[in-house]
Structure formats: C-alpha cells, structure tokens
Amino acid sequence: MTGERNSNTPAVQGSEGALDQFKWEVANQLGATLGGDRTSRENGRVGGEMTKRMIQFAEQNLKGGSRI
Asked: What is the C-alpha separation between 61 and 42, in angstroms, rounded?
C-alpha cells in the first residue's frame, strides 16, 4: 500500500511475510478492502479478527500441552 506507515515490529524476525499474507487472507474472508482510504473501523476489523484467531490458535496449542 502506498504511503503506509507501520511502526509495528513482529516478535519473531522473518515473520513479516506470513503475517502480511494472514492479514490479506482474513480481509478477503471478511470481504474487507484494506488501505489508507478506508476508515479505522474497516481496517481495525481485520486486525481484531487476526488477534482473535491468533489467540484461539495459542489456546488450542496450550490446551494440547504444546509449548508455543
């Protein structure tokens, strides 16, 4: 996205590509279009859903005795 300013840094180096792909997959599933011309609510909906899914993933792995 042109003009995108993002100061977030992933906790795991090298995961930027996977997180970006995940973001676009979630946006596509929600029928959302991301971009600077969209409202914070529209873009935030995608981020919220990503967070929800990552927490579910972590909980499932912790429940199964796996260390993340």
From this structure: 30
